[in-house]
């Protein structure tokens, strides 16, 4: 299901702590903030596709949701299944192990990253449309086309001559192929241009409601971001202010991640 280099990347266990500090922590807080406003109320049935170790599934289950994780990495499935209230199975986002119209919402917070072919990404959205009930919500996370360019300067990656060709290909084609440092740089992936997002979900039969920037430029503020997240008051202010601009189209490309929020039309016959 996953290319060997992608499987190896995730089997190293980086997803376990990635969302605990710095830009990852901001990504989690902002994603959770958006989910808290767009998901149906608990107890609803949620399918967390590409849910990794259950970092979102666990608090969702604690909040009263019925959550099932589907992930292609065996280690992720085992760890997610061990979390209270969460069930987890191995599976491919393009062929979900779920019945038609069986869940109230689908989270795609990972699978769209690693499918360079548009037909595969549309297939993921189409599977989500198949399993979600009429009126149900599908939330898809994507990485910005410009993320590696920004990371190259913020994290100093451009000091390695191998990094620039990677960035140039990503900017031209969206395909990020790690040809150098598999320990520091993100694995093979597809980085979306904001203008692509609505078309993929729409082609799959969903109705796109919103595109939301997650971190915005704040994800690149380094040590200052750590100071902000260490203060409950500043963190609360950050989340409040980001809500006010999260739909601003001009900020989408400057955010490391973007959420596309779509629904299955309630007009469809059950």
What would you say this structure looks like, in words?
This protein has helices spanning 4-11, 22-38, 57-62, 74-81, 118-131, 147-154, 163-173, 197-203, 223-229, 232-245; strands at residues 45-49, 66-71, 86-90, 103-108, 132-144, 175-176, 189-192, 207-213, 257-263. The chain has one domain (4-143, 187-263): Rossmann fold (3-Layer(aba) Sandwich), CATH 3.40.50. The chain is globular. The chain is an alpha/beta fold. Strands 1, 2, 3, 4, 5, 6, 7, 8 and 9 form a 9-stranded mixed sheet that branches.
Strand fraction equals 15-25%
Average pLDDT confidence is 94
SSE order, one letter for each helix or strand: HHEHEHEEHEHHEEHEHHE
Structural class: alpha/beta
Taking Cα atoms only, what radius of gyration do you get, to the nearest Å?
18 Å
Number of domains: 1
Low-pLDDT windows of residues: none
Annotation field: number of helices: 10
User: Cα distance, first to last residue?
Assistant: 31 Å
* Fraction of helical residues: 25-40%
How many strands, which pairing sense, and closed or not: the largest β-sheet? 9 strands, mixed
- Please name the CATH topology: Rossmann fold
Give the name of the CATH superfamily. Vaccinia Virus protein VP39
CATH class: Alpha Beta
The total beta strand count reads 9
Q: Globular, elongated, flat, extended or rod-shaped: what is the shape?
A: globular
- Level-2 CATH architecture: 3-Layer(aba) Sandwich
